[in-house]
Amino acid sequence: MNECCSDNSKLKIAGHVSFLDALGLLILLPFYGFVIWGASYLVVTIATNLLSTFWDSHAYTVFFHLLALFITMAWFVLKSLPKFLHACSFLLNYKLHIFHVCNTCGHKKDLLNVPKESDPFNGRT
């Protein structure tokens, strides 16, 4: 990436999806959210229980538990959302491309491009 790209770029989103495939994606998203919440809750519960055994005051346990749960869920979503969207592309026919384009030099930087490769089952690119 060039020096001119740091302050002079625009976020662009491109893609295509049919109405029924968008509906299917909306049906799959709650299951994804439930898995993310469950994994986060398990990790945070174990961590806060270990910390509470070393920390005698339980006054802030609920606050720290909820804060840690929110941070953990956000981290899991950021790490796994591209993989989830790519896995959904084998069930649903859609394309999503999010990228930055520099206004000065035209350089593109991909942030998300799903599916990454063509699906061997239906031959789309």
Task: Please characterize this protein's 3D structure.
The protein is an alpha+beta fold and 125 residues long. The chain has one domain (3-114). 51% of the residues lie in helices and 20% in strands. A three-stranded antiparallel β-sheet has the order 1-2-3. A hairpin with a 5-residue loop joins strand 2 and strand 3 (108-114). It is flat. The mean pLDDT is 77.
Write the SSE topology.
Layout: E1 9-17, H1 19-54, H2 61-88, E2 94-102, E3 108-114
Antiparallel strand pairs: 1-2, 2-3
Helix pairs in contact: 1-2
Helix share, percent? 40-55%
- The number of distinct helices, counting runs of at least 4 residues, comes to 2
Number of domains: 1
Q: C-alpha Rg, in Å?
A: 20 Å
Mean of residue pLDDT values:
77
Which keywords apply here?
alpha+beta; 51% helix; 3 strands; flat; 3-stranded antiparallel beta sheet; 125 residues
Characterize this entry briefly:
The protein has 125 residues and is an alpha+beta fold.
